[in-house]
Amino acid sequence: MGDPRIESKAFVKIVNDEVDRILDQDRGGGNTLRTRYNTEKAHANRLQFKDILGPSTEPYWWRLFIDPKDWAAALTEYPGDPGSKYDKDSEEKNQPKAYREGLVRGYNKYLIRNELPEPAGLNADGYIQLWVDVRPGLAPGQKPDTVEKLEFREEDLGAVQFGGPEEFPADVYAEEFTIRSKAAPAGVKYRLLQEGSKKDTFCVIYSDTPYLINTQAIGEVLRLGITAVFSNLQNALRAAVTRADQLRAIARAVRDLHVMHAFTNGCGRTNVHTLLPLLLLRYGFGLSLGGEFGGTVSKKAMYMMFNGGYSIEQIAKWLFVVQDFGLKNLAEGKPSCISPP
Asked: Which letter does DSSP use for residue 117 in this model?
């Protein structure tokens, strides 16, 4: 399979072609999902996690936080407890664990009890707390209850390298954030991403290893950038006219945060596996599981979608296609686009 950090242009094209094929399928009378995507009016009719999954469904939650590429291995290696795969793998490698515990705790807090502020109230502090609640952190031999005592450390914020795609779409390079502080009361524009070492950027691509992104913003600048992402999200959701506009706003926020990669670890479970479903449910969309759809797309879709290789429009269309509004598909791992109840 090669380096899993690298997303080839060929793979991006496979996913995009499959999404377009599904959007353009005639569903009777000339109606297509693309028509719905382009014309449905924006609304904020919240869906509850329990409405999607039903009562006593925790045994199925693992499909939301175990990457789709690992579903088959999780079922084969740990048939009685597939959600423990990453914990067991970490244990074997003598690495920190408690992956499942953090995600289950986060789902109960944020998706069941709705303890995250509305998008209008989100800022860096709320985002950091979300990360604290869902990140793994047990050293081998530690008891699970010690996870609750983990606290944010300033050194956890920024200065991290992570795997990016083979090629970035233009709209990643076009992303800018205006941040204001006592040092820059008029506001300074920071770019999300630049090639090579540039001033006033959050992340740069290493020129000698173009698949590695370096988060170079740290501390207060990175905090202000995170808050700017949520400010942009709030403004875009207020201005949304269609459901597609809402998906574009959500896609942009999650992609920006994931490319910004604010933490030394735990960004995937924070951005993709918790914040994304939270925002989708808040605005009445179904859960996006990734995985195979249409029978041809690689199970790496969810794993790769937010690392900077896809444009906002491509992500928004993909989120629309893989919505899941029912327990059956989640339990079987077969996401599909079905009308919400």
From this structure: P
Give the phi and the psi of residue 16 in degrees, each rounded to 5.
-65, -40
Tokens of 162: 């992570």
Q: Which amino acid is at 143?
A: K
The yes-or-no verdict on residue 249 having pLDDT over 90 is yes
Task: Judge contact between 217 and 263, C-beta under 8 A.
Answer: no
- Can you list the positions of beta strands (E) in 116-275? 161-163, 176-181, 184-195, 201-205, 212-215
Are residues 229 and 253 in contact, defined by beta-carbon separation less than 8 angstroms? yes
- Asked if residue 25 has pLDDT above 90, the reply is no
pLDDT tens track for 41-80: 998 888 877 777 655 667 777 877 887 778 788 889 988 8
Q: CB atoms < 10 A from the CB of 143, how many? A: 8
CA–CA distance, 97 with 153 (Å, rounded to integer):
18
Within 10 Å of residue 72's Cβ, how many Cβ atoms? 12
**Beta strands of the chain (E only): which ranges?**
161-163, 176-181, 184-195, 201-205, 212-215, 287-288, 323-324
Using one digit for the tens of pLDDT, what is the confidence trace for 140-163? 454 544 444 445 666 677 778 888
Q: How far apart are CA 99 and CA 126, in angstroms?
A: 20
Q: Are 297 and 18 in contact (CB under 8 A)?
A: yes
**What backbone torsions phi and psi does residue 5 show, to the nearest 5 degrees?**
-75, -20
Q: What's the token pair of residue 250?
A: 């959500």
CA-wise closest residue to 307 among 1, 8, 99: 8
> 47: how many CB neighbours lie within 10 A of its CB?
18
More confident residue, 137 or 80: 80
Rounded Cα distance, 87 and 93, in Å? 10
Distances (CA, A) of 96 to 20, 130, 135, 152: 40, 19, 10, 16
CA gap 315, 247 in Å, rounded: 8
CA distance 280 to 288: 8
Length of the chain: 341
